[in-house]
Automatic annotation (TrEMBL):
Record note on domains: The DHHC domain is required for palmitoyltransferase activity.
Main location: membrane
Signal sequence interval, chain numbering: none
Name of the protein: Palmitoyltransferase
Subcellular location as annotated: Membrane
Keywords linked to the UniProt accession: Acyltransferase, Lipoprotein, Membrane, Palmitate, Transferase, Transmembrane, Transmembrane helix
Transmembrane region(s): 6-24, 79-100, 106-123, 197-218, 261-284
Palmitoyltransferase DHHC domain: residues covered: 154-295
Pfam family, one: DHHC
Length: 409
């Protein structure tokens, strides 16, 4: 009982710590205890340590830590990837040979598939880059239209020295602009972007399936061992939770390779499954992790009453209407948003290539009635959300644009 409880608590603590450290910054956890704990871990704890170090050692410990810490936090290093692969190799190296003699021929066929698939997908995730280069820049500019909400035309990447395509972002770890930037993944030593997003989601599926399958096998084998090793009369006398946990502790302790990895899988499966669920949600919503943070910022601006909306057709005449939005893109919208503390006033100018309004010619002019203050994010269109199946096609890398012959009719 004691050993099982200790091992479970340690693995649970590590899982919760890893989850908060890695995912606590996600916009989904804003204003939740997870975000608070993440901030405590990454901001308050280092500040506290620095204050103590300043008092006791004149800041020497933090200086030394910063040298190694900046490598860990700011460089694209393979430490987390090595940890991830080691966890897989060691876990499988312990579990599979110990379980193998007890597996049926079906499972002896299925286990190698479940084991190998994540390695293949991990390899594809690591080696497939979505970098925007001078060679593919022209193509990348055509990949997505600017939505003029989160992405506006005319912005340059100062490092790469070219115009930023819509939905791209410069990654300081990869030192490149990344197409359809989702997030820089330290587990992969690579950015998740347009070209490897499909492998990334497949990797999450394969890891979740492997863990759930592993838990099922572990549970079946340990119950089998329990039934073999504990006489029926003793089993009958095992009443309630305590008896059940006691019996399982004995089995896990007697078969630590299967038992230990079973517990590890039990604790890590929720991590993999919740991360998979989050990415399925992102596909459903037609946003990337990078964009979800931008949408959250916009939501706060809407709540503060700083966002005004009008219809494009009210502001621009037909001369501007054809080049404002990309005609072959499946989703069209008539919205123009402006983020400003004051409502746009009569006579304000809107540049046709962006949502920027020129400052009001005279501050005492009345508000322009064509602009309405936004009260809800439901009134903002996301042109990258084309419905689940088209969003999925886009992630897979299939074309989502309307064919030219339909456009001309
Ligand atoms: Zn760049
Ligand atoms: Zn990156």
């Amino acid at each position: 009982m004691g050993a099982l409880k200790t091992v479970s608590l340690v693995i649970l603590a590590i899982s919760v710590f890893t989850f908060i450290a890695l995912f606590g910054r996600l916009p989904a956890f804003r204003k939740t205890p997870v975000a608070l704990l993440h901030r405590a871990l990454w901001v308050h704890l280092p500040n506290g340590i620095a204050a103590v170090d300043n008092r006791l050692f004149g800041g020497r410990v933090v200086l030394c830590w910063n040298r190694s810490g900046s490598y860990i936090l700011k460089e694209n290093h393979p430490l987390v990837l090595i940890f991830f692969v080691s966890l897989l190799v060691i876990g499988e190296g312990l579990f599979v040979p110990a379980a193998w003699p007890r597996l049926s021929s079906f499972h002896q066929f299925a286990v190698p598939v479940a084991v190998i698939l994540p390695y293949l997908l991990l390899y594809k995730c690591v080696v497939t880059k979505s970098f925007i280069t001078a060679e593919n820049h022209e193509e990348e500019m055509k990949r997505y239209p600017y939505d003029r909400v989160l992405f506006h035309p005319g912005h340059r990447c100062s490092t790469c020295d070219f115009l930023k395509p819509a939905r791209s972002k410069h990654c300081s770890f990869c030192q490149a602009c990344v197409s359809r930037h989702d997030h820089h993944c330290v587990w992969l030593m690579n950015c998740v972007g347009a070209n490897n997003c499909v492998y990334f989601v497949s990797l999450l599926v394969s890891l979740s399936v492997m863990l759930v399958y592993g838990i099922y096998l572990g549970y079946s084998l340990l119950s089998e061992i329990l039934n073999e090793s504990v006489p029926p009369q003793v089993r009958e006398s095992m009443q309630g939770w305590t008896g059940w946990i006691n019996a399982w502790s004995v089995v896990v302790a007697a078969h630590p390779r299967i038992g230990g990895v079973f517990l590890l899988m039990l604790m890590t499966a929720p991590l993999a499954i919740s991360f998979l669920a989050y990415h399925v949600y992102l596909i459903w919503a037609g946003v990337t992790t990078n964009e979800s943070a931008k949408w959250s910022d916009l939501k706060e601006d809407v709540e503060d009453g700083f966002v005004y909306k009008t219809r494009r057709s009210l502001i621009f005449d037909s001369r501007h209407s054809t080049d404002f939005y990309d005609q072959s893109w499946p989703v069209h919208t008539d919205q123009i948003l402006v983020i400003d503390e004051e409502p746009p006033t009569e006579g304000c100018l809107l540049a046709s290539d962006s949502n920027c309004i020129a400052r009001r010619p005279a501050s005492d002019l009345p508000p322009d009635p064509r602009w309405k203050r936004l009260h809800s994010m439901r009134d903002v269109d996301n042109i990258y959300d084309m419905g689940f199946w088209l969003n999925l096609r886009d992630v897979i890398g299939l074309s989502v644009r309307r064919p030219k012959d339909i456009l001309s009719t």
